[in-house]
Amino acid sequence: MGYLSGLVLLLGMLPHPLGKTQLAQRLVRGLAEVGYRAVHVKPIALLDAYRDWLHLREYGLVAGEAVSARELLGAREPAELLNPVAMLTVPVSAKAFYDYSVPRSFFVYQADEARRLVAVRIASPDAGGVKSLALVNPVLLERGLSLMGREEVLGLLKRVDTFEEVRDRAQVLSRANTLAASAVKRCLEHLSERYRVLVVEGYSDGAWPPGSLEVRPAAVLAVAPGQVVAYDPGKFVAVVGASAGVRGNVRLEDVAGFIHPEAYFRLPPPGLGEARGGGAGVVVDYVLAKLEL
User: Fold this and answer.
1) What is the pLDDT of residues 79-99, one digit of tens each?
2) pTM, whole model, 2 decimals?
3) How far is residue 1's CA from residue 187's CA, in Å, rounded to a whole number?
4) Which residues of the chain have pLDDT under 50?
5) Alpha-carbon distance 220 to 285, whole Å?
6) Domain definitions of the chain by residue range
7) If DSSP states are collapsed to H, E and C, what string results for the chain?
8) Cα–Cα distance between 117 and 266 in angstroms, integer?
9) What pLDDT score was predicted for residue 76?
10) How far apart are CA 33 and CA 198, in angstroms?
11) What is the pLDDT of residues 53-65, one digit of tens each?
C-alpha cells in the first residue's frame, strides 16, 4: 500500500471530543489552497439513535464528518466510502431496568457503549458505487430494554444492501472487526486513486485508524486540548506495530511512552481564530513540508 504516500493521520490523545474534525477540515482546505487534492476520511464512527436522531433520519448511519466532507469540502464520493464503518447505539430505558428489579444495571449499560450497540454498517467500493452490509443485534430491542423499538432502529439504516442478524454481542464485535479491516483498506485504496492526500481522522483515542500496518503515512498528528503533537511517521508505525502484536487495539496512551514527538503546536481556543501567526495554519505548513519530502 505504498501508494498511500499522501496519508495524514489525525489522532486523538484522549477518548473525548478534542477538535480533530475541525482540524481535519482546516487541513483539507489549506492543502487545496496550494494545489493538493485532499479529502477528509473518518474510517470508524459511532452514532447514537437518540443523540443523532435528526442526522440519522436524513442521512442514515453515516458519520456527520463524511457528510460535511461532501457538503462543505466538495468530496464527490458516497459518504459511506468516506466513513466505511459506522456503529449505532441506543439509549436504554430506566423504567425497564426498574421493572426487571435490576436498576443498577441501567447505569452499567448506559456507561458501556458496547452493551448498547445494536448495529454496525460496513461499506466497500463496488462497481455501482458502494456496497453496504449491516450487522444487527436486535436482542436489546426485543427485550424492551431500549427506548426505541426494532422497526424504529431499522428505519435508520438507509442505503444498506444486506442485513445480517447476529444475536450475540461478542460475535457482533468479532465479525465487525474482521469485516471492518478489509472495508477500511479497500476504501482507502479507492480514495487514494482519486486524491493526492487523505486526511484520516481516528476514532476516539485509537492509534491506528487505517487498520493495515502496511500503510506508511506521510504525517502523524495527535490532538489534545489546545495543542497538536507530531510524531515521526516511521517510528510511530514501528511502535504501533510492536504494541499491536501484544495488545490488539492500540490507543495513543499505550504508545506515547515509547516515542518522543518531533514537533508541538499550540491551538487557540475555539472561536478565537488563528491570530498571531499560530493555530492550524502552522500545522498545515508542517504537513506540507512532510508531503514534499
Assistant:
1) 999 999 999 999 999 999 999
2) 0.91
3) 12
4) 1-3, 275-277
5) 14
6) 1-37+196-293, 44-61+78-179
7) CCCCCCEEEEEECCCCCCCHHHHHHHHHHHHHHCCCCEEEECCEEEEECCCCHHHHHHHCCCCHHHHHHHHCCCCCCCHHHHCCEEEEECCECHHHHHHCCCHHHHHHHHHCCCCCEEEEEEEEEECCEEEEEEEECCHHHHCCCECCCHHHHHCCCCCCCEEEECCCHHHHHHHHHHHHHHHHHHHHHHHHCCCCEEEEECCCCECCCCCCCCCCCCEEEEEECCEEEEECHHHHHHHHHHHHHHHCCCEHHHHHHHCCCCEEEECCCCCCCCHHHCCHHHHHHHHHHHHCC
8) 36
9) 86
10) 15
11) 999 999 999 999 9
- Give pLDDT, residue 74: 82
**Burial status of residue 286 (CB atoms within 10 A of its CB: 0-12, 13-18, 19 or more):** middle
> Shortest CA distance to 21 belongs to which of 169, 200, 197, 192?
200
- How far is 265 from 233, CA to CA, in rounded Å? 17
Strands, sheet with 38-41, edge to edge from the N-terminal-most edge strand: 38-41, 197-201, 7-12, 219-224, 227-231, 263-266
Q: Kindly list the distances between the CA atom of residue 33 and the CA atoms of 57, 77, 285, in Å, as whole numbers in the listed order.
A: 34, 21, 12
Instruction: Please give the C-alpha separations between residue 248 and each of 173, 188, 200, 206, 238, in angstroms, as whole numbers.
Output: 14, 21, 20, 11, 14
Q: Would you state the cell numbers that stand for residue 202, as one nine-digit string?
A: 481516528
Q: pLDDT at position 16, please?
A: 86
**Predicted pLDDT at 4:** 54
- Sign of the Cα torsion 81, 35, 197, 272 reads negative
